[in-house]
Amino acid sequence: MIPSPRTSHSRLAFLLQKLTSCATPLLITALTVLLPQMAAAGAWTLGKGHVWSKITYMSLSTNEQYDNDGNVGEIPARYKSQQVYFDVYYGLNDRIDIGVKIPYISNEFVDVSPEHPFYGAADKKDSGIGDIRGVAKINLVNSADLVGTLKLEFKAPMGEYREVPEALSITGGQWDFDVVAQLGRSFWPVPVYGNVDLGYRLRGEYADSNPSDAGGVDRTYTPGAEFVFNAEAGYSPMDKLLVALKYESIIGAEYDTINNPPAGSQVETLNQSVSYLAPTVLVGLHPNVSLEAQARMTVNGNRYFAGPTYGVGLSFTAALIEQLVRQGTP
Asked: Check: CATH 2.40.160.40 for 9-328?
């Protein structure tokens, strides 16, 4: 069901008691079953001692990309990316969560035609652990109508950035730091919720570890900062079912491809942007387990691959501290 200002796990029993007199058993059941997903959604935070985890598989297969002007064109190859993400969040108290996201990524070019610049490349695939993200969510507003949270996030590089072909690289090779304001609203007793994220991403410098590969030219550069905007609305039409529509957008600032170019050389200026529309379906399998399916479709972009990314995820939640206390009590 839809999160209200009282739907943290530590207050679930109180909420169900209040709803018993005015809600149908159908709505009560939906609330308890869909809570695993909604507890970590947007501005809402977990209760003290609660753990929320999720494993997600995502797959992209495309031969289209957005060029520098935002036009979609075909490339003489097919790009495939398969990703598995493991997320885990822990509620330090009713207002502060900490979390980590660990990805495993496999990128490759297949069906490469002679027209493709990497046709003769010996290695057209890269795979391994991608950049790891750490998250802290701090709930600042928890009124009857609105939930407001500050999310702080960093991305730590787990390897060297692969420049050619760059689309294969499973790491950005540099640090990112995000500051995101999150606002959430429940329209209970109507089974609808909304959430908006507005953030700024400061991107760290990529340091060229081996300038000799480019004839002694130091290719160190700093990617442009990014503005992040996400909007989400969800509705629970029936027991154990939630449908949502998500809009995700990243707008990158312009940046020079080389920080310190050789004297007299021209430096290319680039920027990247992309937006997605993602219809999502969530099914409650158990009071602690939810299954999610999503189609993430590109709407527009700049220097990004175009086409749908399909994903499926399984989320789980538990009151870790309460369970440990109960297990240790005679």
From this structure: yes
